[in-house]
Amino acid sequence: MDADAIFARLKTLAGTWEEKSTKGWTAGDKIRVIARGSAILFESSFADEPEEGMATVFYVDKGRLLLTHYCEAQNQPTLAATSLSEDGNTVFFEFVSGTGMKSREDGHMDKLILKFISNDSYSERWTFYRSGKEQWMEEIVCRRTSSHRSTTGQ
Fold first, then answer.
1. How many domains does the chain have?
2. Model-level pTM?
3. Which residue in 55, 108, 138, 142 has a CA-CA distance of 20 to 30 Å to 18?
4. Residue 87 is part of a domain; what is its CATH number?
5. Which residues span the domain enclosing 131?
6. Residue among 53, 54, 7 nearest 33 (CA)
7. Angle, CA of 14, 124 and 107, to the nearest 5°
8. What is the pLDDT of residues 54-69, one digit of tens each?
9. How would you class 48 by CB atoms within 10 Å of its CB: exposed for 0-12, middle for 13-18, buried for 19 or more?
């Protein structure tokens, strides 16, 4: 798996997005390339809830694609890309470590399946882990807002 190539593809998601979750919530997402191109910040915000929202930062370290998720559970799990689908459109991430947790048994985001659907659409499927097992999965479908549509038409 070429971490740099996947990271470059993630950079193409920079822009403003609308999110819709299988748990019933909607939100806005802003994706920005930061730190002179060495990190990508995904910011989710919930307009009706002050001091709410989450952030995920993607980066490459020593040839591995990593992410750190700053969660409303008030912890920061780090996940690593572990595999890529044959078609190259789905990246699988798994828990490596975390801060803000007494142990891995504390509730945290543990896995992510990120699927590139088109230049203007992608999905995230998150697994929450607590007390030795996965508690639930949530899928979030993200669509680029009309004012920031890709010009490639995919």
1. 1
2. 0.89
3. 108
4. 2.40.128.20
5. 3-145
6. 7
7. 120
8. 899 999 999 999 999 9
9. exposed
